[in-house]
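Re: folding output
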Amino acid sequence: MTDSSFVTLQQELQQLTTRTLSPSARYGHVALLLASALMCAVLASLLATETALPGRTQLAFAVLLVIGTSWLAYALWVLRSRHSLLANQRIVAGRMAVAFTSVFVAGALLLGAVTGRALFPVAAAFGGSLLVLACLALQQAHRRADALRARRSELERMIGAQS
């Protein structure tokens, strides 16, 4: 291999490991940050001011507040790090989506069993379809991260062979 191809390999490895968020990804995470902050503010104010709400409603609002706070923290983490090394952000977001959708499905199934209302199994079925999508997104994120790791290892091996 020539010196120019060695330099090209080093540049490609450098580019792979220091890639930053694209403007559209940054705008999307800013939108997520704003939406989750707004959601948290509304839920927190409802919990603080509406003390006469039934216990189940307060519990649901508290769970939603935890979920909103988690998305807020995720958006802040991504925007603060600004790097997309190995697509870790997509894996974290996929795991969060699977976890939160699972909570929704479990809650709908539980409420359906307890109350006997027909609305809850419909909600659980809808949540189940969202859970399938979340699982597919998580699987895709893992594949992308694995492909990036493999490419990085290949580049490091090629550079190591040249040294």
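--- second protein (sequence, then structure) ---
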Amino acid sequence: MTNKAIIHTDNAPAAIGTYSQAVKTSNTVYLSGQIPLVPETMTLVSEDFAEQAHQVFKNLSAVMEASDGSLKNIVKLNIYLTDLDNFPIVNEVMAQYFSEPYPARAAIGINQLPKGSLIEADGIAVI
């Protein structure tokens, strides 16, 4: 039987659908996508892309802390962007939250995200 723990924290936005913030099985954490919502207000942090990117990493960090880990534990990160021209900004912001060795990563350009967000990120972590 697989042990499965549902991860929830009030320090990250509440789920706005039929999903959990994260699910932990054994030593692996599967992080749901985080958009740049401020947890207390459930509204976008701002229209500025860099501020949105910071908020996404803050939200992922809060969920990782609730999982007894940190961003350092993320081994695979997926980033979704509505404008791939923002990719250099993602690298600048990400460098403030991650250090080497960096996780494996994909950057995917998509048409739109929930609530008009410009960025979303999800990932897999090993604790």
